[in-house]
Design brief:
mainly alpha; 5 helices; 48% helix; 0% strand; elongated
């Protein structure tokens, strides 16, 4: 079925070089020809320029930073963001797990306004809840 005429036809293409010495000599010859060509000189010049620029230029971007284009934040927002978190025991208890927070009245806020909310009863439990809420939020 297949007939091989020489050892070079075995894999379907001829070998360019039969020894490592021949291959190395051909590669060196190609390097010399490329280095003397216009493309080789231009590539070398560009690479040297890039290396020089990298070694001798200032560090940092010459483009303006994206942050310089943003408007400044209002002082009240900066003050709120930098204020410390509350340090109450109730705050830490609520912060440890979401299960520690009473969520029984949250579903009423899922509907659209206006919200029908009865005024809270003036009971000691409601006053305690309000105090706890203030401690959690403001410390």
């Amino acid at each position: 079925m297949y007939s091989f005429h020489s050892s070079t036809d075995f894999m379907g293409r001829k070998a360019k070089y039969f020894t490592l010495v021949e291959k190395t000599a051909a590669m060196n010859k190609h390097k010399i020809r490329y280095a003397q060509s216009k493309r080789g000189k231009a590539t070398r010049r560009l690479r040297r320029s890039q290396i020089h620029t990298k070694a001798h230029s200032c560090r940092g971007s010459s483009k303006p930073s994206i942050y310089s284009k943003l408007p400044s934040l209002p002082p009240a927002l900066v003050q709120l963001a930098t204020s410390p978190l509350p340090n109450s025991n109730l705050f830490h208890h609520a912060f440890q797990s979401a299960d520690n927070i009473d969520k029984s009245e949250l579903p009423q806020w899922d509907s659209d306004p206006p919200y029908t909310m009865p005024h809270p009863a003036d009971t000691p439990a409601e006053a305690r809840f309000t105090d706890n809420l203030i401690q959690v939020m403001h410390g």
